[in-house]
Amino acid sequence: MTNIYTPQQQRVLLITSLLVIAGFILFGLSGYISAFLGAGILYVVFRPWFTALAIKRKWNRSLVTSLLIVFALVVIIMPFLTLSLLLIGRIQYYSQHTDDIMKLVKHAEDLIGYQITSPQNVRTIAQQAGSYASKLLPSIAGGALDFIVIIGLMFFAMYFMFVDQESFTKGLQKYLPFKRDTQKELAESLKNNVNANVLGQALVSLVQGVLTGLTLWIFGVPDAGFWGTVAFFLAFIPILGTPLVWGPAGLIQLSQGNTSQGVGILLVGVIVIINIDNLLRIMLARRMGNIHPLITLAGIVLGVPIFGILGLVVGPLLLSYFIVLIHVFEQENKKLEKEAAVAEEKIETEAEHSKRAKK
Questions:
Q1: What is the pLDDT of residue 140?
Q2: Is residue 225 part of a domain?
Q3: The model's pTM
Q4: Is the pLDDT of residue 205 over 50?
Q5: Domain carrying residue 301
Q6: What Cα–Cα distance (Å) separates residue 121 from each residue in 97, 126, 141?
Q7: What is the tens place of the pLDDT at every residue in 220-248?
Q8: Nearest C-alpha neighbor of 177 from the set 328, 59, 297
Q9: Which of 47, 86, 265, 275 is the most exposed place for a label (fewest CB within 10 A)?
Q10: DSSP one-letter code for 199
Q11: Which residues form a coiled coil (predicted)?
């Protein structure tokens, strides 16, 4: 029986069907997309280790991957989850008990001699901050089953990325709609972003968070550990970061009459913490990928509302990919223009030879 569709129509319908089915799949997995993004990030982070052990030393792939999963769970996931839960718990506490915040606002108003805002606005902002933090950061209390499924999917995907590494990379090369040179450029961009925004930035944030917490503790600021944790997360934001913690802490100490403590906090923040941040970023940029701070900052603003805490990495990565693809598009246009110019020159030369031959 003859098919009623032409080959061209069959091709269009096939592509349409693929897009529709892919849309349903993405919609169904939208709640767990962070698991696959996390698997991809961990794959890039641990790939050098896997290559050294499983490829070069010929260790069993399943064993190496299992060890990497255990390491990721113990060293990365659990500490990060603990920090997240600590931060969420304290933010929710302050959002429900706004008296402490109102005292700080009152001290600030007395210091500058101007009313900043009304008590009702402070309570509203605090409650919104608590709600936003609960959505942004992973929380077992907010959904234990979802959390377990996401972690399980992430490690499951990571396991097969490593065990079937050759098939995985060949599949990407085969189905990505880019030339080989473009794929290499995108892979390098992914590597640089993950190194800069996961490994490098996590190290910078950890150092800054510890220094901020110690500084506040030395100068007698209450809840120094909590504010050090806040500084760790804020340190992912370039430039602003930890000054949002130690700056107000120093000013509050000054407003309360604790001049030496306030001046000490501000001096340590300006002289030590900021310079440590700049020094570490310069050192790590040479080793782990030089990502412009503007790309990181804009990427975080873009990525965090969409992807949650993973947006700290995914947002800058999307911007970097956008810039890479623009660069590739520009190169392709230059090639086409050059080829067109060569072809036009060839036609003119042939026409000139033709005229001479006729003469």
A1: 46
A2: yes
A3: 0.67
A4: yes
A5: 181-354
A6: 14, 8, 28
A7: 888 788 788 888 877 777 666 788 788 87
A8: 328
A9: 275
A10: I
A11: 326-353
